[in-house]
């Protein structure tokens, strides 16, 4: 039996979008939550304990979005650096709030051991609209490369550039949601003029490692820590997660630098991308945030051991 997938409501199947289609897509996007209330106010509460760095500004008329990172107050040039990034895809909520929760509750545990840089919301326009792309229908998490087409990625690259060779560990916080299959991947296929082929959504937490720098013991240590607070996603019937073969349970790998992913931003020895599943009937926002925090802490502890 052949199932015909519904076409995306914008564009002509098989034809990549042009300016008119991008404009039609943009006209459908509405603000659904507040970057200022959810993120900037939280950063202000953390200011007494962290150095707050404004590393850029996004001007998307009629709105402007200052970009902030938190840095260790007791920064030492003789220590390595840990980078935590959240909200590269703005709709992936626990990445943003997990980064902020780590900064509030656990950053002090690493004082004098490693310098921390936490960029909790890389894509604030998308955060407010609960979307994956920026207003140009560009995915920031495919844009970490020279002459980046995404201002969100370019700003973060400028922030990290002076520290790039000192970063020991980088944890990039993401989610895989049911809307990946119902909205975002169909939109991607329509934008690029290709056929949408569903992959399914993994039922639980998993990691994406760097296929060119696997560090399996590190990835397994992170998975073991997260397993105490969240379900680890089982492979599908073909031994895959989102179309990729599993390396060990809960882990797939991509060539992160070649794909322009945020995880390839530095030369860090220990790099991982988390993927939380917030749409499980048994998952709560608190549990999703806790899984992100557990992953960050396990990554730092392993790197420092």
From TrEMBL:
Cofactor(s) needed for function: Zn(2+)
Gene Ontology molecular function, alphabetical: hydrolase activity, acting on ester bonds; metallocarboxypeptidase activity; zinc ion binding
Any GO BP: proteolysis
Keyword Metal-binding: yes
Alphabetized UniProt keyword annotations: Carboxypeptidase, Hydrolase, Metal-binding, Protease, Zinc
Spans through the membrane: none
CDD domains tied to this protein: M14_REP34-like (cd06231)
Active site residues per record: 275 (proton donor/acceptor)
Pfam hit, one: AstE_AspA_cat
InterPro entries per UniProt: AstE_AspA_cat (IPR055438), Peptidase_M14 (IPR000834)
Domain Peptidase M14: 31-303
Family: Belongs to the peptidase M14 family.
Name of the protein in question: M14 family metallocarboxypeptidase
Taxonomic lineage of the native organism: Bacteria, Pseudomonadati, Pseudomonadota, Gammaproteobacteria, Lysobacterales
